[in-house]
Amino acid sequence: MDKLLAKLANSPKLLGSIHECEVQATEVLKHYITNFPEFTDHSIDHSKSVLRYVEFVLGENLNQLNVDEAYILIMAGFLHDIGMSPTNRMKEQILAGEKFKKYGKSFEEYLREFHHEISYEYISTHWENLKIVNPIYAEAIALVGMGHRVVNLFDFANYNPEFPVKSGNEYVCLPYLAGVLRLADELDITNDRTPDLLYGGYFPTNKISQKEWDKHKANYFVNFGQNTIKITSACYNKDLYFALLKQYGKIEDVIKYLQKLILAIPFRDRSLKVDFYRLEKDVKVHGFIPKEIGFTFDIQNTIDTFVGRNIYNSSFVAIRECLQNAIDSCRFKANKETINYQPLIKVVLQDGTLTISDNGLGMDDFIVEHYFAKLAKSYYREERVSNKYEAIGQFGIGVFSYFMLCNYFDVESKQEDKQTIKFRVTKDAGSYFHFYDSANRNSSGTDITFHLTDNLDYEFLIEKVREYIRYVEIPIHLMYKDDLSVVEKKEMNISIPKMLSHVDRYHSGELAALHAVEFAYSDSEVDGKVAILFQKDGDGVFLPFDNYEVLKTYQSSKVEVSQKGIFVKNFDNRAMDNCIGVLNLLKKNDIKLGRSGFNDHDFLFRILERFYVPILNMVFDNWKLLDAKRKWELSRELMGHVFTDSPVRPYIREFYDRLYYRVYRNEQYEYLTISEVLALGEFALVKSNSGFDRPRQNIIVELDPIARNLKLPLVFDRWAPPMKLLYNLCQFERFDITVRSTSRHLFFCVNSNQNVEEYKIIDSNRMECFAFDAPYVCGFTNISIERPFNTEHRILKYYFHNLNLIKSNPKINRLYDKLFYEIGQFIFSTHAYPGEKDPKQEIQYLQNLLQKINDSSGTDFSLKKSDFPIWIQSNFD
């Protein structure tokens, strides 16, 4: 770095700062090995090597630097990797920070990826200890040092081309210095950074570090010629060869980036440049032929795939995607602006074209090249952006939907203090963007002009924009000829006729008579309004209703879900019938490609529960003055017609004191809340005219004999939904459940005073297993599952005791799966469809399956008469 130091010959203060900083940096950088024990050299030796490459990269252009730029470049060269050696306090702050927790990888990997940002923080906060002259120089050094990695150097608001560090007419060109340092850092790749002694005796052991060391060992020389940088290397395996090519490709990208950056920098009185445009690779290979053949993808076919209706269900989603981008740009600008910024979006339809304009941030060449033009890469997903703003877009493919409206479109965009760019994009993947040499836009923002392949109806356009853009705070002006329509943020309103418009018009009277018990709610995650529909009697009591009986449809639930103001889908609410509503999710959730829905609906159920609880409490308040029997009647209607057959969720606990069941004890009926039922301690679940009794015989269950036999209170109903809900609730609470028998029936018996860690399940068929008080292998209850298995039966005991061994043998595992499935089917068919199959043949089939298990595993199982319920035992005679 002698040439750079020579620039400072007449600046003893700056020279002294450099020498003192070198001493401090040498000590600090020694500690990189604590965090990266197997990393290539990142000590002060690497820093000095980078500065030597800085001088090579600059060549004669070094003479164009002023004293301050030389000082800043040397100091940034010393300190650009100091983030790999954070102080203990900085490390504690990183480990405790949300960014690291969300990153989800090791501290070492975190430092690899973000050490340039940590370097900026280190320099900015420890500048005095690093012997930097003052905080203004420290800011410049920190920015240039951070710029050696993926920072956007085209962002001249942060990387000021005329950064003042002192009074006078000389400035520091931060983007130029950072670009030069970035290239020099990439070029420090030769094998003097990976000594053979260390490599063979100590390092490295992990794959990432080993690949880095191997690449450095393979590179012998970096030479600088006429406009060309040449790298000489040798390698002995194809994986290393292609790793080297990838490394060289990265260097080529940095060279191109630096040249584009220099062209974009608005120099005033001088011309800074770099004379190298090409990279030459001289790679000598041994032991293989370096053919660059492997899997690739057809770009045009990929575009056609992303354009087609296999992702998007309508060509009008192109309008939605374009408006989303405009909204994101405006919102991001509003998030950054401190002045009174008024965002505005315009949609202008003319004969043959549609133009969508915004006054957001706009784009420059860097954003166009590195984000707009790259499939599946989104500017808003970059860490430095996503930490400040959460965008609507997620995938970076929305622009491909534009071709559903056109074969080509024009883009005109401008960022503040930068030149306007205008270019045309065609559907032909082999065609580069066509950049125009003139443009009209003079304020920041973007215009997208679609050259339409088909005519577009203006009224239909307005309808579609209103359909997609629902809860966006930015006004959207739609214009066609002399007409102006403004789409503004919708109110959160619920209309029963509109939301259930599919109901046949012959039932419009019943629809109009329904009453919506609704609740509006807003927090940091959601803004919305939800209602559950009821009929009303003459006294104003809310009555749950059967949707098919009243409306002749099973589709009586519809929740319109938007995210960040943009409509996503109508959610089929499987957890609650007769439920309608509108939701706007304020935070980003994982959405399907094409925005046709969400990948995980569970979070929607959790959000809807915030509405269910207050709505249902309003319903129960409406029933407050009714007697217990009437509350039970309405409760069972609610459980049967509104609560659906879905897993019990925690919010149900809110209603343990408000939902009623009928209980038979002491030879009489009582009407108890769920809390009172659970307080009984032990009880049996009894449902008549179902799976307890042989169908088609219409046997009425006599409760007295059952109660005397079981010596338990009986929770009793003739309707499956309430009984199934209570059974599921008992499982949700992990109560101890057993199966007990009488001479004719099997019953679930619950002990709410005892809990179990988990219930045993035969995974392959999702068959639940409980302890029976009878020797049966399997039974039939029909409250929740049709065929519970007996964990106390000898076959089941053996199965669960040896489960890992059984699962490790695919053949035996399949035999057990088949056996349990066929036993369950036999129990069900013999009970539900007596006489349709020959029971003796079925029993023989089961015995044959069991014999195959015996032959394979050395067991000696057989099925006896006593292994089956009484109604089957006669088939063994």
UniProtKB/TrEMBL annotation:
Protein name according to UniProt: HD-CE domain-containing protein
HD-CE domain span: 36-254
InterPro entries assigned to the protein according to its UniProt record, in alphabetical order: HATPase_C_sf, HD-CE, HD/PDEase_dom, Hsp90_fam
Family: Belongs to the heat shock protein 90 family.
Keyword annotations of the record: ATP-binding, Chaperone, Nucleotide-binding
One Pfam entry name: HATPase_c_3
Gene Ontology terms for molecular function: ATP binding; ATP hydrolysis activity; ATP-dependent protein folding chaperone; unfolded protein binding
